[in-house]
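User: Predict the complex.
Assistant: Input components as received:
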Amino acid sequence: AQTVTQSQPEMSVQEAETVTLSCTYDTSESDYYLFWYKQPPSRQMILVIRQEAYKQQNATENRFSVNFQKAAKSFSLKISDSQLGDAAMYFCAYRDYSGGGADGLTFGKGTHLIIQP
Amino acid sequence: DAGVIQSPRHEVTEMGQEVTLRCKPISGHDYLFWYRQTMMRGLESLIYFNNNVPIDDSGMPEDRFSAKMPNASFSTLKIQPSEPRDSAVYFCASSFLRGRRDTQYFGPGTRLTVL
């Protein structure tokens, strides 16, 4: 079974600074997706960024970028120019693609990100 | 589109009662997922459907839990009988698999409290 580990229960960063959230995963599959989801206090789950395992290029979405290291099974999220609205729980998630269809997500336990004004 | 709709948003019930959670996926989506979030276990996948057919229910914790999708626009998750340890936030998500890409869009969740 696949597992996703987020080793940082909580992180704090000053507004406008850069912060990196860590995620490692374990799988025997070669074809999969990785995601970062944001969950603000409203508890709505919001997709931040997606990475396809077969793509070597790291995904970026505006101020959000990832460092995907497939051999090390590492998938970190970098948030640049942190804003107060970035404060939330961040979940790393894995989805297998070996069956060719969609699948349920496997989530890490989450990192609580605090933005200091 | 209104997004994924879940009802009720909050449910408080007593142990032993039947609970039914409802979900309306985004129109045109062909996958529907149910997740549960607790402090102890985090976010867990319970079951998912493709074109109204259950594909993987390995995450359903016990026989007390059942899920149905009678049509493309409606799904239910039922707990009978409910127990205090079922207290959690239950999320429904839907997606449309286009080629290799799909994005799961989550509903706002139902917070269930079993007394």
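Residues 32 and 73 of chain A are 12 Å apart (CA to CA).
Let me know if you want any component modeled separately.
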